[in-house]
Amino acid sequence: MCGGVYFSHNGEDQRVYFPNPKAVLPVRRKDGSVILLPWGRRKTQSGVLPMGGWARLDAIHAGRWDKWFPVPVKLPIKSFMEKDIEGNSHWYDLTNRVNIYLT
């Protein structure tokens, strides 16, 4: 699963990694502005959302996230990071829009 994202916000490039408890994601609002929202929940954080930083689309379609009222949003990110089986990080540039579901 995605462990990091790279984006620009207010003219500043940022790399954000999910394990950081202060991790945020840029979310584009309907008016075109972008706000930064907390990215997921870690074991050390209190809250009512499930642990983790992502939801499988099939789980959303199956209704397992209904009690958290997920909505599709646009994340204006330039690239994302995944680790391979050996734990090496790889960055992938995005060329098309990607819809991500947040709660």
Topology overview:
Layout lengths: L3 E6 L2 E6 L6 E5 L5 E5 L18 H5 L9 E4 L4 E5 L5 E5 L5 E4 L1
Antiparallel strand pairs: 1-2, 1-6, 3-4, 5-8, 6-7
Describe this structure in words.
This protein has 103 residues and is mainly beta. It has one domain (4-102). It has 1 helix and 8 strands, in the order ββββαββββ. Strand 6 and strand 7 form a beta hairpin. The protein is globular.
In sequence order, what are the helices and strands, one letter per element? EEEEHEEEE
Task: Give the DSSP E fraction (strand runs of 2 or more residues).
Answer: 35-45%
Main beta sheet: strand number and arrangement? Answer: 4 strands, antiparallel
What is the count of structural domains? 1
Q: Give the strand order of the largest sheet, numbering strands 1, 2, ... along the chain.
A: 2-1-6-7
Mean pLDDT: 90
Count of separate DSSP helical elements: 1
Q: What's the Cα radius of gyration?
A: 14 Å
Number of strands: 8
What helical percentage do the residues reach?
under 10%
Tell me, briefly, the overall form. globular
Stretches where pLDDT falls below 50 for ≥5 residues? Answer: none
Structural class, by secondary structure, is: mainly beta
Oligomeric status: single chain
Through-space gap between termini? 17 Å
